[in-house]
Design goal:
This protein is of the alpha/beta class. The protein has 7 helices and 9 strands, in the order E-H-E-E-H-E-H-H-H-E-E-E-H-E-E-H. The chain has helices at residues 24-36, 72-75, 93-103, 109-118, 122-145, 171-181, 207-221; strands at residues 8-12, 40-44, 66-71, 84-87, 150-151, 160-161, 164-165, 186-187, 199-202. Strand 1 (8-12), helix 1 (24-36) and strand 2 (40-44) form a beta-alpha-beta unit. The mean pLDDT is 95. Bound molecules: pyridoxal-5'-phosphate. Pyridoxal-5'-phosphate binds at residues 12, 16, 44, 46-47, 71, 73, 79, 82, 84.
Length: 224
């Protein structure tokens, strides 16, 4: 798909919404394609601490041609605080600063102080979360695969289950039905046309809530 208008490849691993984690061959191929075609790699690595299988491969190793995007939304469970950062080489900074300035004048001061205080504890905090999330991952995938018409691969990272379904409806219709029944989820189509036929659940919730949610999904889809 690369032509003379292409300037960058955007990648995201561990991925939202699939929970997939890039393998070595894919990583190498992206590096080769970027180098051969003189492209930037914009790599969203906000889920890098959430790996259950395999390992994270960071484009921090390719900083002469990458911009690594990071957030505290996942690593400090601060979703909604809108605090993150980018890592790139110095030449890129004037362009990134210009864009950042017009997009968000600056993150709110109290949140910046909170992140500063929490920064030394990120690894310790996420290590505890990963064990807990691994149990939630297995629970939600087992529960989804027990439901007729739903099939869910085991995600290797992040905290999303992205099952496919065989009901005669769009993912938006199914998501709307489940939301009305009490379970928040996203239609696969929200992530692009290839997401149709899928639905995304987040398992950033207690095991008890996951069980309750999956009971609702099971009941709601039983008649479809
Ligand atoms: C892969 C990925 N990148 C970025 C974001 C957004 O991060 P922030 O909350 O810092 O805007 C999310 C949040 O859902 C995400 O899943």
């Amino acid at each position: 798909m690369i032509d003379d208008r292409t300037t960058a490849i955007v990648v995201n691993s561990p991925a939202n919404p699939t929970g997939s984690v890039m393998d070595e061959a894919t990583y190498r191929a992206i590096v080769d394609i970027a180098v051969d075609n003189d492209l930037l790699v914009i790599s969203d690595e906000v889920n890098d601490n959430f790996i259950y299988e395999g390992r994270h491969r960071s484009f921090l190793n390719l900083l002469d041609r990458s911009v690594v995007v990071q957030s505290f939304s996942k690593s400090l469970a601060m979703t909604g605080w809108r605090i993150g950062y980018m890592v790139a080489n110095e030449e890129m900074m004037p362009y990134l600063s210009k864009m950042q300035y017009y997009l968000t004048a600056c993150p709110a001061t109290p949140m910046q102080h909170a992140v500063l205080a929490a920064l030394p504890h990120v690894d310790e905090f996420t290590q505890k979360m990963v064990g807990m999330f691994d149990r939630r991952r297995r629970l939600i995938v087992d529960r989804l695969n027990d439901i007729d018409g739903i099939s869910c691969p085991m995600p290797k990272g992040a905290f999303y289950a992205f099952p496919s379904f065989k009901f005669d409806m769009t993912s938006e219709e199914l998501a709307t039905m489940l939301v009305s029944a009490g379970v928040i989820c996203s239609p696969g189509s929200a992530f692009g046309s290839k997401g149709e036929g899928h639905i995304r659940f987040s398992y950033a919730a207690s095991e008890q809530d996951i069980e309750r949610g999956m009971d609702i999904v099971e009941r709601t889809t039983a008649s479809l």
